[in-house]
Structures are given as C-alpha cells and as structure tokens.
Design goal:
The complex is a heterotrimer of chains A (347), B (244) and C (285). Chain B starts with a strand and ends with a helix. Chain B has 244 residues and is α/β, with parallel strands linked by helices. In chain B, helix 3 packs across helix 5. Chain B is built from 10 helices and 10 strands. Chain C is an all-alpha fold and 285 residues long. Classes of the chains: A mainly alpha (347), B alpha/beta (244), C mainly alpha (285). Bound molecules: adenosine-5'-triphosphate and magnesium ion (MG). Residues 42-43, 85 of chain B line the site of magnesium ion. Magnesium ion binds at residues 42-43, 85 of chain B.
C-alpha cells in the first residue's frame, strides 16, 4: 500500500497510470458538470458511452488479455437487454437489483453453455474457429430475434420503464448517469484486480501459448470457460442497463454490427490495457457524436481510416502512444541446428 | 518399479510411420538418454509420453497409472514435466513470473484471482533463480534473455513443481561448451529427486551424464542399456555408420 | 414433373449457385491462400458498384459485369501489396486488417448513397418457361455463369502453367522460390484473382437485389461458414461447403420459416465444424 504514495508509483509506465486515473476522474465529474450546464443531450450520450464501455472492458479481458477471439460479444449484450426488457414489461419487475442480477445470470449461463461447447473436448479449436462461431452466433441470433413474434420480432421490446433502486425510483438524467458510472467503476476495479493478479498471469499465458500452459499443468478449458462466462455476464449486465437507459430493445443489440463495433473500441484503444477500450468508446461515441454533427457522411470514413492505420502501425492501440517505448523483445534465437533438427553426431 | 513404461508405441502421420513399436522404460532418479539419427522418432516418442500427440497403438504408464490417453494437463499434474526442443517460455512475462506460473499450477482459481499464493512461492522462486543462475535477470522479460538462459529458464520451470519425471528435448541445442557443462550439472542435480529423459545428439554429453541409454532407429528400439553396453553394441554402431 | 417441383428445383439451384458464386473468390483467398479475408464481402460490393456505375454513366449493366472482375482485381492487387502482404505470418492480424479495410469501403460507399439502396436492372429481364414453370431469365443466366466460372477457375488452376506455379507457391513458398518462381507476384496475382471472382459475383447478383453498402457484408457469415465447413487447403472444399449450406437453406423454407431455416443451417454448420474441424475435404488427412 505504501508504494502507492511514492511519486515513482504515479510516474511509472510513462504517466499512463496518471492518465488513466485522470480519465476516470474526468468522466465522473463530467456528468454533473454537463447536467449543471443543461447539456442533457451530452450527458445522455456520455451515459450510453459508459455502458458500452462496460461491454468493451469485459470484451478486452476475454480477447485482449486471455486471447479468446470473441467476435460476437453483442450476443451477451443482447441477451441481457432482452432479459431485462421482458422482465420489466411482462413481469413488471422494477427493482434494478433484480433486473441487473437477472441480466448477469443470463449472461453467465450463455457464457457457460457456449464456452463449454467451444473449449471442452479432445479437439482443441483454433482461435479463428472461436471468432467465426461467435460471429455466426451473433448473426444468427439477430435474425432469429427479428422474426420471433414472442419477443417482439423486428420491433423488439419498447416501453421499458425506468427501474427503482433500493425502492426509490430512478429519475431520468443524472441518476442514471450515476448508475452507469458506478457500474463502470466496479467493472474497471474488478478488471484491474484480475489483470494484475496471479490469475492474470495465467490468462496471458494461455493467450500467448496455450499449449505450453497445458504442459505446465493448467487446465486451459476451465480457465477459458471461467473468463468467457464472467465477461459474458458483465456484457449482459451492460446490455440490461442499456435497455433500461434507452427504454427499448431491438434485435440489433444482438447483431454483428454491434459485435464489430466493440471490436473497434478495443482495437482503437488498445488490447490488454485497462482503460484502452474505454478510450475507444469515448472517442467514437462521445467524440464521434460531436464530429458527426459537422461531418455526418465523412465520419465513418474517418473511423475506418484511423482504424486501419492503428492496426497497421499501432497494433497495441492508441493508448500505446502514451506508453514508454518498450525495448523491442529480443528476436527468438533460432540456431540452424535447431531448425534442421541438429547434427546427430554432435561435436 | 519403473517410473515410466512406454511400450509398443505406434504412431503414424499419414503415410509416414514415425514409431513402430518403440518403447522406453525409465527407473526412478536415473538419467536416461534417448538417441538415434535424425527422424528416428525421438521427439515423437517424447510427445507421445507427454501427451502432445496420441499414439495409434501401445501404452504409456506413469508410476503405475495408465496415462496413454490422458490430456497434457493431467499428465503434468500427475508429475510429468517437459522442456520442448525449441525453448517455449513466456517472452512478455518476467523471468520470476515465468517461474511463478510454473509453481502455482495447482493453486485453485479463487486463490489465483486473489493473488493469495504469490508470497508463499517467493522463497522457491528465489531458490530456483539462484540454482539456475538467473537471479540477475529476475525482473527482465524472458524474451530478452540469451538463448542458453531461456533454455535454463524452461528447465527451471519444468523442475519447479518437483516432478517425478522430467522430459528434456535437446536441452543443449545451440549452447557452447561451457553452457553445456553447466546444463549437465543442473540436470545431474535434478536427477537426485526425479527421473530424467534426455534427447540429445551430443554423444559425449550423453555418455558422461546418463545411467542408461536407449537407441531408436526408424521408429523402433535398437538397443537399451548402460553407456558401456551401448558403446559395445554392434547394432548401434551399424545404425550410426550406415547413416549418411 | 409438375411445374411446382420444377420451380422448387430451380429456386434451390438458383440460391445455391449464388452462394457458390459468392464463395468462389473466397475459396481462392481463404481456402487456398488461407488469408482470413474479412473484406471479401466488400470485394463483392465493389463489383456491384462497378455494375451500378456502368449503368448510371454508360447505361449498360452488361459492360459493368464485364469490367467488374478486372477493376476489382486491380483493387485486390493494390490491397495485397499494401496491406495483406504484411500479415501472411499472422492470421489474426490479417483478419483485423481486412476487417478495417472492409469497414472503410462500406463507409465510403455509404457516404455516396442512401442506405435503402439503388436499384440496378438486369441486362436480361423477363422469364423463361421450363416445363411449364416460368423462371427468371437472369437467375438462369447466373446458374450458367456459375458453372462456367467454376470450371474455368478449376481448369486455370490445374491445367495451366501459371496455375501450377500458383499451387506450387501456396504449397511450399521456399521450394517454389528456390525453383525460380516469383512467389511475391504469385501471391499478388492469386489474391487479385480471388478478388476478380468476388467482383464478378457482386456485379452478377446486384440486379437481383439493389446496391446497398452491406450487400457483401450481409453474406459474409454464410460465405465464411461455407469455406470452413468445406475445409481449407483446396478449391473444391469451400465450393462443396457452399452447396452443403446452400441447398438446405434454399429447400427448408418449403416447410418452415425462411429465416428460421437459415438459423438452423448456421447452427448445424457450427456443430459440424466442431465435430470435424478439418471440414468436408481435409487435405491434411
Ligand atoms: N507432425 C508430423 N507430421 C508428419 N510427420 C511427422 C510429424 N512429426 C514427425 N513426423 C515424422 O516422423 C518421423 C520422426 O520424427 P521425429 O521428430 O520424432 O524425429 P527425431 O528423432 O526427433 O529427429 P531429430 O533428431 O531431427 O529431432 C520423421 O520422419 C518426421 O518427418
Ligand atoms: Mg527431435
């Protein structure tokens, strides 16, 4: 603990730590400031961005840290949103505690089912298979939801009322902003703790060389399943909050377009970085709103071009810019003898 | 009783038969050399023992338990460690963290999430760093290590959990004479507590180090015995002489 | 056979042939080159754009269809030289980079048109009577073109000197380079060839729908599933995969909802790939 109080701790990592804390602090005070200035439009944009930020942070833990190449994270988001939407409109559940718990539980369950299918079994599946299956699930479920009359088909679910928290009604506007901020802070805190824990080391080990980890004795499927289910649960929680904030759910919440949007947040901000995905979300959702007012048609082109440049030149995302340039890791030394299998006679 | 008994192992890769009935029997706390010309099936036999590939026939028994079809993680937890032909350490994690990774495999996920066992393993990490001469690089990313040091780190990781059986595929590949000697010492020290199987091309190194040697040729066992017996064996001489 | 049956058969053949046409370029790029090309849908889109532009400016969709493969091939060659080339050793990087390229192309097309779509007429419209059933003439043309395109692709890869060199390069780059093949050019050329086939597909199918930005992207998942179900490493694997997915997707709607049948086929494909990761045709045993 006392390390936290030394200047060295604060300045470590090229000031990224300070940057991250400043970013979070800035978000927290931005809400009341915008509210005070009567900018409720921007406050709501920020609230939405924070909820998407929860989804992005969870996706980053699964993909950026553990290497589970999930291209369909919207599936969890959509499931959470539909669960909350259905409970709120059909079963008259109004308590945020229950709704959030239900969304989280539904996401966990989906994560367990899909994860068990993907990760267990003798034949290990490749990363690209995981990507394709999750993408295909997102695609298929969006289509299914858009024709399934029971859950509103193409119209989705509308008229979702604002929930109550601890028995008191949440007002539209700033109160919901606080709900989003608190959720985001809790999720960020958990992600931070897990990423720097001993388990975080295991997650990265599985990302970087899962076979090696298995030969050390790690049960890869279990680690992947735990991460996939947990991040799925958080993704569903985000979807549930989003449904409450917007007051409706639509099949697009499950779809490929949102799934790939999350990919863009994480790619832009930076994989395996705590606040990177949040930076990505804020740039696109809040900054983007602003630019889009001026340049409605050019904006997606700018996003696409920046994304391509980031992938080509900053594979660790925009937050890499703030990082001290790490010494390039020594190239893996490979002697000719190893590649060819060596000389049996020796010297 | 033998700690490892692999018998009648058959392994085919499509049209290629890599192993046709080869076997290996290893006694506790001995160093067992596995030699043979290129492509004779040494690595494949090691992979079958470690569970990287499943054999098409035969049995692998570790300390009395049949593990022929067990998954790699199960084997590792049953006391088997492997160092691959090409060093595979975690380049982005520090040397100390690589060792911690090896040490904490049996800790449950909850205690890993709460980082409850880091301190408990510190002493062992320190000793391993010391034994393998890696203390000066403990906080460097493993990717920055020199080639020989990476090999040592991987051997240290393999030994971290005090296995019953240590499998080393060419542990001295690409090392100079001095590094080889050091590796020999480390392996000898390891063999006081566990059995070691070494695949090597350097016959002098093997002769000095091993208690027993098994020779493979074209996927079958040619001979198995003490270094002296192997040196005298005509079939072994033939294998090595007819080879171009 | 009753006209009803003929109609059904024709519909199945039409939808399947469209999927095969869409997959053909992907069979070359993803199946043979093993580049996980997420912008394949946008290469299709570019073909459709060429057809649209030819229609708007020159009043001839047919001309657009003839030019599209060449235009998209040129684009593919540039793309391979600037982007794809960096990622041959990094499958995940290729996937992300091509995703970004696709996103960018869609954004550019979106900026120039309404998202409802612009209709493009077929060069031949009207219907043809087969055994008492009236079928769309353009769909019939597509079926014929698909058969010809598959045959031409297959023959050019197996029977021509350049095809031989392409396959040698994809089999073993170093060996091919050692035997004097310019492997860099082979990679560029192969990618461009796959792009040309995508361009042809886009130009051919745009009259059936309309030109809209996600024309290709909407088909990406079925296309990718076809390739993976069929198996990597060969040309015919992905095409078989397209048939395996296309026929049930076209046939099931006779009994159940068409979206539901699509979803069922996708789920079946996912499970199939899990049980048989190599796909229908697995070159590596
Ligand atoms: N994954 C594989 N697929 C196909 N063939 C393989 C595979 N692994 C090994 N082989 C073949 O099996 C035979 C035995 O190979 P192995 O690597 O076990 O030999 P080795 O004795 O370790 O040789 P070296 O001294 O070169 O390391 C060789 O003919 C090799 O080509
Ligand atoms: Mg070998």
């Amino acid at each position: 603990m006392q390390r936290v109080l030394t200047p060295a701790w604060w300045l470590a990592d090229g000031g990224r730590r300070v940057g991250a804390i400043a970013l979070v602090a800035g978000i927290v005070i931005a809400g009341p400031l915008l509210d005070g200035a009567g900018e409720s439009f921007w406050m709501m944009a920020l609230t939405r961005a924070l909820i998407l930020g929860v989804l992005a942070v969870a996706t980053n833990v699964a993909w950026g840290v553990t290497g589970i190449f999930t291209l369909g994270q919207a599936v969890f988001f959509g499931v959470g949103a539909y669960v909350v939407g259905l409970l709120a409109t059909r079963e008259d559940v109004v308590a945020l505690e229950s709704l959030a718990g239900a969304a989280l539980g539904a996401g966990l369950l989906c994560g367990l089912v899909v994860g068990a299918f993907l990760f267990f079994g003798r034949r290990r599946v490749g990363m690209l298979y995981v990507g394709l299956v999750t993408l295909a699930l997102s695609y298929a479920l969006e289509r299914l939801a858009s024709v399934w009359g029971e859950i509103g088909a193409g119209n989705g679910i509308t008229g979702i009322p604002l929930p109550t928290l601890l028995g008191t009604e949440i007002e539209p506007g700033i109160s919901f902003f606080w709900v989003a901020v608190v959720t985001l802070l809790v999720v960020l805190g958990l992600a931070w703790a897990v990423m720097r824990s001993q388990f975080g080391m295991v997650m990265r080990a599985i990302r970087d060389d899962d076979e090696r980890a298995e030969f050390l004795g790690y049960r890869r499927p279990i680690v992947q399943l735990v991460v996939f289910a947990a991040t799925g649960g958080v993704g569903a929680l985000a979807g549930g909050l989003y449904a409450l904030e917007e007051g409706f759910v639509s099949p697009t919440f499950l779809g490929v377009s949102l799934s790939t949007q999350v990919l863009i947040y994480v790619l832009l901000g930076g994989r395996d970085s705590l606040v990177g995905p949040l930076v990505g979300v804020l740039l696109l959702e809040v900054g983007g709103q602003r630019v889009q007012e001026e340049l409605p048609t050019e904006w997606p082109i700018i996003v696409g071009a920046v994304l391509l440049l980031v992938i080509l030149f900053l594979p660790n995302g925009l937050t890499q810019l703030g990082r001290r340039r790490r010494r390039a890791a020594a190239p893996r030394p490979e002697t000719a003898a190893e590649v060819s299998g060596g000389d049996p006679r020796g010297e | 009783m033998a700690i490892l008994e692999a018998s009648e192992i058959v392994k085919r890769f499509g049209p290629v038969t890599a192993l046709s009935g080869a076997g290996l029997q290893v006694e506790p706390t001995t160093i067992h050399g596995l030699i043979g010309p290129n492509g004779s099936g040494k690595s494949t036999l090691l992979h079958v023992i470690a569970g990287r590939t499943l054999p098409d026939g035969g049995r692998v028994v570790l300390d009395g338990a049949d593990i022929t079809r067990a998954k790699p993680a199960q084997r590792a937890r049953a006391g088997m460690s492997i160092k691959f032909q090409l060093a595979r350490v975690y380049h982005e994690q520090t040397v100390a963290d690589n060792l911690l990774l090896a040490l904490q495999v049996r800790d449950g996920i909850p205690s890993l999430v709460l980082s409850r066992t880091r301190r408990r393993h510190q002493e062992r990490v320190r000793r391993l760093l010391d034994d393998f001469g890696l203390t000066h690089v403990r906080d460097h990313p493993a990717g920055e290590l020199a080639h020989g040091e990476q090999q040592w780190l991987e051997i240290a990781m393999a030994m971290a959990t005090e296995p019953k059986l240590l499998l080393l595929d060419e542990p001295t590949g690409g090392m100079n004479r001095h590094e080889r000697e050091r590796t020999g010492e480390l392996i000898r020290a390891a063999a006081t507590t566990c059995a070691v199987v070494i695949v090597e091309h350097d016959l002098d190194f093997i002769r000095d180090l091993c208690d027993r040697i098994t020779v493979l040729h074209q996927g079958t066992l040619v001979a198995s015995g003490t270094p002296v017996e192997i040196e005298r064996d005509e079939r072994v001489a033939e294998v090595y002489l007819t080879r171009v | 056979m009753s006209p009803e049956t003929i109609r059904t058969i024709f519909d199945v053949a039409s939808l399947t042939s469209i999927l095969v046409l869409l997959v053909l370029g992907m069979a070359v790029i993803v199946g043979m080159m093993q580049v996980f090309n997420l912008c394949q849908g946008e290469l299709v889109l570019l073909g459709a754009v060429v057809a649209y532009v030819a229609h708007e400016w020159l009043g001839s969709v047919l001309l657009g269809i003839l030019v599209a493969p060449f235009a998209v091939a040129a684009f593919g060659a540039v793309l391979e030289r600037t982007v794809i080339r960096r990622f041959y050793a990094n499958a995940a990087g290729a996937l992300l980079a091509t995703f970004a390229v696709g996103f960018l192309i869609r954004a550019i097309v979106l900026a120039r048109m309404s998202s409802q779509g612009e209709p493009v007429p077929a060069p031949i419209d009207g219907t043809v009577g087969i055994g008492g059933a009236d079928v769309s003439a353009w769909r019939l043309v597509i079926i014929v073109v698909v058969v010809l395109a598959v045959a031409a692709t297959y023959l050019s890869l197996t029977r021509t000197a350049i095809g031989l060199r392409v396959r040698a390069t994809l089999d073993d780059v170093e060996l091919a380079a050692a035997s004097g093949i310019s492997t860099r050019r082979m990679f560029t050329g192969t990618y461009a060839f796959g792009a040309a086939l995508a361009g042809l597909a886009g130009a051919m199918i745009v009259p059936l729908q309309a030109l809209y930005p996600s024309l290709g992207f909407d088909n990406l998942v079925p296309m990718f599933l076809s390739v993976m179900v069929g198996g990597l490493g060969t040309l015919h694997g992905p095409l078989l995969g397209a048939v395996a997915l296309g026929v049930p997707t076209a046939l099931l709607p006779t009994w159940i909802d068409s979206v539901l049948s699509q979803v069922l086929v996708i789920f079946a494909a996912i499970v199939f790939m899990r049980l048989r990761p190599g796909g229908l045709v697995n070159r590596d045993i």
